[in-house]
Amino acid sequence: GQNMPGLCEITATAPRGAAVRVAFGEMLNEDGTLYRRNLRGAAQLYDVVWPGGRRTLRPDHTYFGFRYVEVTGLAEAPSVTALPAFTAARKVGSFTSSNPLLNRLMANIAWTQRGNMHSIGTDCPQRNERLGWAADLQIFAPTAIFNMDMAAFYSKFVQDMMDDQRDDGAYPEFTPASKKFYASPGWGDAGVIMPWVVYTRYGDKRLLARAYPAAKRWLGYVRANAPGLIWTNGRGHNFGEWLNGDTQKLEGYPRGVSAMPKDEFATIYFARSADIAARSARVLGFTDDAEAYERLFADICAAFRAKYLNADGTFKHETQASYALALAFGIATEDMRPKMVERLRACIAAYGGHLSTGIHASHRAMLALSEAGFHEEANRLLNLRTVPSWGYMIDQGATTIWERWDGYVQGRGFQNPGMNSFNHWAIGAVGEWVWRTLVGINPDESAPGFRHVTIRPIPDTRTAHVDGTYESVRGRIRVRSDLDVKTGRYALDVELPPGMTATVVLPTVDGKTLMVGSGAHHFTGQVETQIGK
Fold first, then answer.
1. Which residues contact 399 (CB under 8 A, 6 or more apart)?
2. Which of 99-103, 300-304, 457-461 has the lowest mean pLDDT?
3. Separation between Cα atoms, residue 272 and residue 325, nearest integer Å
4. CA 156 to each of CA 88, 141, 146, 162, 211: distance values in angstroms, whole numbers, following the listed order
5. Rounded to whole angstroms, how far apart are CA atoms 180 and 533?
6. Band of the pLDDT at 505, cuts 50, 70, 90?
7. Cα–Cα distance between 474 and 448 in angstroms, integer?
8. Whose CA, among 91, 195, 283, 530, lies 20 to 30 Å from 85?
9. By CB neighbour count within 10 A (0-12 exposed, 13-18 middle, 19+ buried), where does 106 fall?
10. Residues 129, 294, 342, 471: which is the catalytic one?
11. What is the pLDDT of residues 70-87, one digit of tens each?
12. H-helix or E-strand containing 505?
């Protein structure tokens, strides 16, 4: 019942010379037969000339991406045992809640991560494309680090990207690379973004220092292809906001309102990389570089706003993704942010109350809503059961995250088999939103390696109980919260390791009583409590 990477042991009795075929697939057709059209050129099967008698056989030099196994050529049913195979990163996160949908989602996210860790971070384990697409890994990185110890894995992946970097500074779109796949915005930028994420979560400068010269070369490449600081040239395959709502085949949903313009998408990632390069230079002590990249970031933002935004902060071409990324990447000025959030909500309403975002902006839209005070709206999106939504996948029996929101739709069937994986981690990046807003663990980038953390769970009646544990590099963080829906009483329990400080932000209502330990204190509005060593 679990979609997974790995292989199978087949135990059976058959005469010598019997031709036995074992075939693998992720889904079943509506008639109950094995669905294999989405495998493209991958065989995903093996043939055995049976050696005779009762034997247990398995192929030890490959793996498959599968949930279902079809065995033919035997006179009687075999015993089949599935054996998962993936890079053995240590599990560091555990999550449970009172919301069965959310529990299933988080389990699906973890299984998807396992499904795509085979020395490189593959985009999918089943078809003939086990490629280390860089955008998927940078999008999913914060979620991945909450689930498993990814320090070594990501350090290795970043080194692979540096090994494949072209002389002109262009980073590959995936690694190990093909010479035809370079320089796509959001994909190549992973070479700048991922070292920063690893540094902020683990507090180790070594990868940041090793990757910094390559990051400078990448930014040099982009700058040379961005006249007027708008990235218009040399953009590789230029995928943009991949798998947005305009790529879905859904009856009744509006078209032409989801695809973020490609030059706008490229430029917003140009700004993101410049911002992170500035922060990296500060950490590494390169003051002149830091000041130069800070100016570059400010100039890109100004050029971006002048070209794509109206004076009030609205986009000239409105998409959910445009607002989500502008809010996430600091493009918006403070006075623009309320209007941008308002328009993001309006764009969601215009798409039938669903997200129309693709792999880059879906989880960032969720974070933007919660950070702006619209956590109820984000929770509504998470708990949707209609397509497109995470809940719809689960209601169709998903045990991993699908590549496409509409990979399978009841009554319509499967999406385009040329690209339709059912084990693909990109939109599983919503796990970051769960950890940061429902569990409430928020890393502090100014105190890397979890020297300091902000604990800020946001209660929601759909998920009244949440219990999350994260084994950080400094020790165990555990946050448990309970909301009594009938009385409104809220209890929060936080455990921290020695040597870590935290700011605990508690939700309160004017005039209510906050109990801290055994003492009662009256506060008005939101309270921040410093937890010391």
1. 1, 2, 3, 67, 107, 108, 111
2. 457-461
3. 10
4. 14, 14, 18, 10, 11
5. 53
6. confident
7. 11
8. 195
9. buried
10. 129
11. 999 999 999 999 999 999
12. strand 501-506
18 vs 55: CA distance, rounded Å: 12
Tally of residues, the chain: 533
Q: If you average pLDDT over residues 246-266, what whole number do you get?
A: 96
Q: Please list the residues that pair with 529 across neighbouring strands.
A: 504
pTM, two decimals, is: 0.94
Assign 90 to helix, strand or coil. coil
- Point out the catalytic residue in the list 26, 173, 264, 403: 403
**End-to-end CA separation in angstroms for the chain:** 45
- Residue 103: in which H helix or E strand, if any? helix 100-115
Tell me how far CA of residue 454 lies from CA of 193, 385, 441, in angstroms: 22, 31, 6
pLDDT at 523: 40
Q: Cα–Cα distance between 291 and 502 in angstroms, integer?
A: 30
Residue 502's identity, in one-letter code, is A
| CA dist 192 → 124, 134, 136, 199, 224 (Å) | 23, 11, 14, 12, 17
Torsions phi, psi for 148 (to 5 deg):
-140, 165
Say how far apart CA 520 and CA 411 lie, in whole Å.
57
Q: Look up 371 and say whether it is catalytic.
A: no
Q: What is the mean pLDDT of residues 472-487?
A: 95
Q: Is 129 tagged catalytic? A: yes
Split at pLDDT 50, 70, 90, the class of 372 is very high
- Give CA–CA dist 155/175, Å, rounded: 13
Other CB atoms within a 10 A radius of the CB of residue 83 amount to 13
Residues 6+ apart with CB under 8 A from 206: none
In the chain, the amino acid numbered 179 is: K
Q: Taking Cα atoms as reference points, which of 180, 185, 179, 171 lies closest to residue 238? A: 185
Cβ neighbours around 307 below 10 Å, total = 14
Confidence of residue 183 (pLDDT cuts 50, 70, 90): very high
